[in-house]
Design brief:
By secondary structure, the protein is α/β, with parallel strands linked by helices. It folds into 3 domains: 103 residues, Rossmann fold (3-Layer(aba) Sandwich); 75 residues; 137 residues, 2-Layer Sandwich (Heat Shock Protein 90). It has a 5-stranded parallel beta sheet with strand order 2-1-3-4-5, with helices on both faces.
């Protein structure tokens, strides 16, 4: 596959110099996408052509010089700008620095200088773009985590009030009746109290298991995943096959928790959206890596659109799973095509229960 050439917009009002720069760019493997001779024209072309970088002469004919044009391009298009100039006056440099340029070259310059400055400018811009994207994802994740915490607290509060609260209220009423009718046999009321207490204990156990199953702490990841697989199959109607091999030893607690929550989120998404008939979960070890696979034969989804919605503050699902994978030093790969199901693969360094991160 031929590598994609970076596109460069040249802004230079001396045509002979501009053509020479374009030729040097092509010799270096770049693609000149346009030539502007005035600041206003440079802004228009940058907006329309979406180059990867702008080579901007500071001294331009017309009312707008290169520094003013660069500021507009930076604000409007967020494109990296490299200045070209034959002048080194302090006031010019001070104005240029305010636009946060990605490079500054004095005319005349060599092809080697051009190659170095452009390569560093593009690298810096890509690094800034990755950092900005990571920051947006982190903000979105933090916001959604807080929302998820509040939803979970609200759910627990409702269950405590509606279910456990009703049971305790019933016991209180029965005790009051026992006090009022002391001359009558309390056997029936005691039996009713026992039944209500048993129901309340079941509700407490179910609530505790939902928050964090004790099986994960007591028996480890494989039994907990098997239990969760069976529970999901019963609730959702699809079949679940769970395979595990070479995972007899306990994994580090943070890995077990992350894997459990990732599978939990995956099964929740499958149940809600995939319309799958069959799900396969595999847990194993390959060399020094733990490998976890979750596959379904459901509808699949548009992964790129899902990530964009997550960054914009939508569903926490995919972003949350990827963040959990990152926290244990792992990598989460999701392969999905609309109409063809989804495969989720998590790989992370193998760490035993007693190993330190």
């Amino acid at each position: 596959m031929t590598p994609v050439k970076s596109k460069v917009l040249v802004v230079e009002d001396e045509l002979l110099v501009a053509r020479d720069i374009e030729q040097q760019l092509m010799d270096l493997g770049y693609q000149p996408v346009g030539l502007a001779t005035r600041g206003e024209q440079a802004i228009e072309m940058a907006t329309q052509l979406h180059p990867d970088l702008v080579l901007m002469d500071i001294q331009l004919a017309g009312d707008m010089d290169g520094i003013a044009a660069a500021q507009v391009i930076r604000d409007r298009c967020a494109l990296p700008v490299v200045f070209l100039t034959a002048y080194t006056a302090d006031d010019v440099l001070d104005r240029a620095k305010l636009t946060e340029p990605f490079g500054y070259m004095l005319k005349p310059f060599s092809e080697r200088e051009l190659r170095t400055v452009l390569a560093m400018a593009l690298y810096k811009h890509q690094a800034e773009a990755r950092l900005l994207n990571s920051t947006r994802q982190l903000k979105a994740l933090s916001r959604r985590v807080l929302e998820a915490q509040e939803l979970e607290r609200r759910r627990v509060a409702v269950e405590l009030h509606d279910e456990l609260g009703q049971s305790l209220t019933a016991i209180k009423i029965n005790l009051q009746l026992s006090e009022r009718f002391k001359d009558k046999s309390p056997a029936d009321l005691n039996l009713e109290n026992i039944r209500i207490v048993e129901d309340a204990l079941q509700q407490v156990r179910r609530l505790a298991t939902t928050l964090r199953p004790s099986m994960l702490d007591d028996l480890g990841l494989a039994p907990a995943l098997k239990w969760m697989s069976d529970q999901s199959a019963q609730r959702s109607g699809f079949t679940v096959q769970f395979f595990h091999e070479r995972v007899q030893a306990r994994l580090a607690p943070d890995i077990e928790t992350a894997c459990f929550r990732i599978v939990q989120e995956a099964l929740t998404n499958i149940s809600r959206h995939a319309q799958a008939r069959h799900v396969s979960i595999q847990l194993g070890r390959e060399g020094d890596e733990m490998v976890l696979l979750v596959q379904d034969n459901g509808l699949g989804f548009d992964l790129l659109a899902m990530r964009e919605r997550a960054v914009a503050g939508g569903s926490l699902g995919v972003l949350g799973m990827q963040e959990r994978a990152t926290l244990i030093g792992g990598q989460l790969d999701i392969q999905t095509v609309p109409g063809r199901g989804t495969t989720l693969e998590l790989r992370c360094p193998w760490r035993g229960h007693e190993d330190k991160p």
